Amino acid sequence: MGIHDLQEAGILPGLNSLAFDVSEQIPPSSWYGTLLKGTLNFSPATTWFELAAWVTYLAIVLPMFFRTVRRANEPAPQTPATSAPTTTGAPA
């Protein structure tokens, strides 16, 4: 999400209103900070607007994901067994 970038550009409000700041525990320049930023776009200093966007995203996507997984794990519907073909009178 480019919300932080839009906040830095002044298009979206709330750049200085932080929801949480875990920069001491997860330094942005560390290997795991870089990994989190690259894979999940995690920011150690998350604003309220970014947090609201993530929660909204998860509220929409997680139910769709779990519905898809549930459908994939359901057994296929059973079809009634067909009767064996009968032979008609020609002697062998």
Structural description of this entry:
With 92 residues, the protein is mainly alpha-helical. It has one domain (3-73). 46% of the residues lie in helices and 8% in strands. The chain has three helices and two strands; from the N terminus they run H-E-H-E-H. Strands 1-2 form a two-stranded antiparallel sheet. It is elongated, with a radius of gyration of 27 Å. It starts with a helix and ends in a 19-residue tail after the last helix.
Characterize the largest beta sheet: strand count, sense, and whether it forms a barrel: 2 strands, antiparallel
Rounded to the nearest angstrom, the distance between the terminal CA atoms is: 75 Å
Please indicate the count of domains. Answer: 1
Q: What number is the mean pLDDT?
A: 85
Query: How are the strands ordered across the major sheet?
Result: 1-2
Strand content: 5-15%
| Strand-pairing-aware structural class | mainly alpha
Counting H and I runs of at least 4 residues, what is the number of helices? 3
Low-confidence stretches: none
The total count of strands amounts to: 2
Which percent range fits the helix content?
Answer: 40-55%
Give the radius of gyration: 27 Å
* SSE succession: HEHEH
Indicate the overall shape: elongated
